[in-house]
Every structure is written in C-alpha cells, then in structure tokens.
Amino acid sequence: MNQQLNRSGQLDDMVMKWAMHMPLRFRQGRMPYVFIMGLLLIATMVFVSFVTPYSNGVPVPMGFATVMMILLVAYSWGMPLHWAVHIGVTTALVQVSYAAWVSGGIFSPRLAWFTVIPLVPFYVIGRHAGLRWLVGVLAAMVAMSVITWVGWMPPEPTVGLAQIKSSFSTNTVAMLLTIAVVILYDILYRKAYRERLERRAELEQKREELLRASALREQFIANVSHEMRTPMNAILGFNTMLMNRVTGGSTGYKILNHTRQSAEHLMTVINDVLDYSQLQAGKIKIENETFALHDTVHNAFGLFSPREQSMSLTYHLDMDPDLPKWVRSDKHRLMQILVNLLGNAIKFTHQGQVRLCVENVAGGVKFSVRDSGIGIPEEQKPRIFQRFAQAGEEIQTRYGGTGLGLSITRRLVELMGGHIGFESTLGQGSTFWFTLPLQAQDAPPQAAVNQVVKPGVISDQALRFLVADDHPVNRLLLTKVLQNAWPKSLVVGAEDGQKAIEQLKKQDFDLVLMDMVMPQMDGIETTAFIRSELDGAMRDVPVLGLTANVNPQDLERFKAAGLNDVLLKPFDPVQLCTQIEALILNRR
C-alpha cells in the first residue's frame, strides 16, 4: 500500500510540475487532470479523422475537437466549469450519435464512445451529474435501437479493411480513455488519502503538543499555588496569633482584621484558579463521607463572622429543625460551595442583611443565601454562571475577582448530584440556592471518639513534637502554635526528610508534623521510611501531614505512605491542635 501511495505520489508530483505551465484556472485540485483529459480527447478526435473510411468522418471529429479547444479556452477565461462540461458532453453525444447512425446504427462500433461520455461529468463535476448523463446516454441508446429497427438508416455501409481498422481504432481508443479516467480518479483518491494521512499525523502531533501544554499548565498552576499557599500559611497563622493578643476594638485589631480579609481574598483567588484548572482536567472527584450537617453549616457560616462584625450587616443563619443530623456527601466541597456563595453575598452587600437558610425539601436539602445587595441586571443573568463572567465590567473594576467562583460552584453542585439557581432584582438583592440529595445517615463509628477529643485536654503535658518543613518561617509558626497550646512541649525542627529521620533515631517523639515538598528527601519518602525502616515505637509514631500541595493524586500518595491524617496549608491553628490531640489520644 505504501509503495502504491509512493508511485501515485510521484505521478501526482509530475502532473503538478506540468500544471505550472497550464492556464491559471487549471492549476489547482483536479483541474490539471481535466486539462490533460481535454487534450487527450482533442488528440483522439484528430486521430479518428485520419483513420475514418467515411466521407463525412473528417469534419465531424474535427468539429468536436474544435469545440473542445474553444471550451478549454473559454473556461480559462472565466466560463463556469459546469457550463463547459455540459456543452462539451452534449456535443460529444451528438457527434457519437451521428457517427453511429451513418455506420450501422445500434450495431456501430462508434457506440463504444457512449461508455466514456457519462464518466467525464462524473469525474469533473460529481456523481449526480454523471448519473444524469448516464440516463441521457441510455436514452440515446434506446433511440438508436428504435431507429435501427424501423430502418431509418442511410444505405448499408461497405464492410472492408478500412472499416475494420476504423472500428478497431474506435474501440481501442474508447477503452483506453475509459481506463485513463479510472486511473486519474484513482490518482486523485490516493492523493486525497495521502493528504488525509498527513493531516491525521499533523493532528496527532498537535494533540500531543496540546497534552504536553496542558500538563505543563497544570504543573505550573500547581507549583504557583504551592509557592503562594506556603507564605500565606505564615501570613494567616501569625495574623491569627496577633489578633488573639490585641484588644478587639483597638486600631491594631482593625488593621489586623483588614490584613486577614485581604489574605483570605488572595487565598480565594488562588483556590479558584486551581479548582478551575482541576475541573477542566477532570481531576476533581467527590469524596463522600458521613458528617454532621449542622456542624458543617455552622463552620462555613462562622468563617465570615469577623468580617460581618466590621460591616453594617445583619448576618443570620436559619436552619430547619427537622434537618438530618448526619448526612453522606463531600463535606469539604459543601463547605467550599457555601463559602463561595456567602462570600459573594457579603462582597456585594454594603448594608442590610445576608441570610443563610437550610431546609428540608423533597428529595434532599435546600441551601439558600439571600442578600439585600446590588442585584444582577437582566441582561447579565444568562451568563452569570459562565467562567470569567461577572455582572458587567463596572463590577469587575469596582469589586475585583476572577469570575470563576460561580462557575466552579455550579460544577461542584452538579458533581455532587444537585441543582443550582438564583433569583435577583437589580438594586434589591439576590438569592442563590442549590439543592443536594442529602438523606439521613447513621452516625459514623468514629463519632463517639471525636466527641471526647476537646482542645486543651492534654495541654499541661510535656509533649515532644518534630516539625519537618523546609521553610524556616513555617517551622517558626508551628513552633509558636504548638508552644501556645502546650507550654511544656518540646518542638524540634528539621529542614528536610533526611534530618527528620536523624532526629527520630536520636529520640522519641509524640507526633511528627510532616511537610510534603522538601529537598533531599520529601515527605512521602520520609513517611514511608518511618513506617518501614524505623525500629520500636517510632515506627508507629503519629504523622500529621501539612502541605500546600492540593493535587489530589499527590495527596493520595502522601496518605498511602502512612500518614495518620493530613491538613492543608494555610491551616487553622485551632483545627491543627484539635487534630493533634485526637491523634495523640487515639494512640494512647
């Protein structure tokens, strides 16, 4: 097959070289072959005029050759192609019919030309034109048969050597021209097939380039997210520590509160860009777990309480008393959806109220976030859930944002099997709602254990912590958080996994806080080494992962290495201490 393609490609290249010397309109596509076919027909008619034994055999083929020459010139000057073809084929049909009539009617060898006539429009114009002319040729054959039967014929022609030569030449040339048309069509087919293979190879190469570009983009976004979340961990962590030491109404507290709001806004932007990238790549999966619905809603609602206190807003939560206590879904994605909608409501409401309502509905639970803010214009409503879309350029300029939050929220709701919608009146506020198919579940087995773990239960104990993190600021932050919670504790730092293992071999620790991305030996390798290579009690030491890497695949590898739990940076100090106490108490 490849050899045939190569041979047809060589012939096609040769024809294309000839095409450079043809008239301009004959240089593209199949037209070089049409030009060659026209010249062959002209040459054939001239040849036929030399071998014909009939007295009128010269002017008829020469007349047809003249018509063909005129049509080639007329097309090169601008005549439409289908006009030229139909005129030429009509002339050929008349010429062949006349030649057959004077040389034997239905028995004439000139009728061999009828085979060629439908092929020309089929090849040059298309299959429909060829089929129509096939019907015309068959009609001419029927007419010739009737004329022969009735006897409307000239005197019976003489049969001799001249007639034999003429008939042989006619049949041979007609056969050769028929084969020539088939060969030309085959060449065009192979050319199109070769071009299709080349195009397919180009598309495959483009696909591989796009896949590489997509992978690089995802890696770039993940790296940028990690590098930004790492310092944000220190910013938010130290901000929280300072706010706990400053009086609530003081100027310093207000400045720290504004700083925290700006940092949280930056974290929202970082998370939106990362989540959108992962949604596009199909890497976000819903992780179902049984959790307390009331606690989750209260936690999401409470995140904005400090911001609400600094604004002239009524911030209220209404929860249906008949709501199920335990439900099964993705707790963290539900938190993210609520935080996105509440954050938007507070962002676009200068005064008035923001209200979160949670109620039982048929088939699940409905969440509604109502505000008395600026509302949404009618013309912007159809695109409000589109990516990078906000309610006008003025909104983007005045309030900022990426325009990804609502797009991500809708995708997450749909992934969780729910529906989302909104109602809004310009200048009067908006209500964004979503429903999820949440049904009552039995309490999980670990619920009883978690209920007895309260912050401060072991605060007076002299605990020993190992902090493995390559950023000294993060090690300092963790040291301060741990020593504030456990004043008698000993905190040892290690800047990479190798040094962490050296410390574990020297002394025992109650818990290890492990970063994932570190030089020399990362957190995954270090955790796996602890679980498989260390001796004694240190092989089972609780290891709490702390990482700014939010890639689901990397987190799974981190957990599979032997983590007891994992917490993402920036972390909440209270949540961190609660998880640490739970791990230590469960070990005992």
Give a quick rundown of the structure.
With 588 residues, the chain is of the alpha/beta class. 57% of the residues lie in helices and 12% in strands. It contains 19 helices and twelve strands.
Question: What keyword list fits this structure?
Answer:
19 helices; 588 residues; Rossmann fold; alpha/beta; five-stranded mixed sheet; Heat Shock Protein 90
Description of the molecule:
The structure is a single chain. By secondary structure, the protein is of the alpha/beta class. It has three domains: 2-205, no CATH class; 285-436, Histidine kinase-like ATPase, C-terminal domain (Heat Shock Protein 90); 447-587, Response regulator (Rossmann fold, 3-Layer(aba) Sandwich), CATH 3.40.50. 57% of the residues lie in helices and 12% in strands. The chain has helices at residues 2-19, 31-51, 59-76, 81-102, 119-124, 127-150, 161-243, 251-280, 293-302, 305-309, 331-347, 393-399, 405-415, 447-452, 472-485, 497-506, 523-533, 552-560, 573-587, and strands at 289-292, 313-319, 326-329, 352-361, 364-371, 419-425, 429-436, 464-468, 490-494, 511-515, 543-547, 565-568. It has a five-stranded mixed β-sheet with strand order 2-4-5-7-6. The chain has a five-stranded parallel β-sheet with strand order 9-8-10-11-12, sandwiched between helices. It has a two-stranded antiparallel sheet with strand order 1-3. The longest helix is centred in the middle third of the chain and has 83 residues, at 161-243. It is elongated, with a radius of gyration of 42 Å. 30% of the residues are buried. Mean pLDDT is 80; it is low at 395-401 and 447-455.
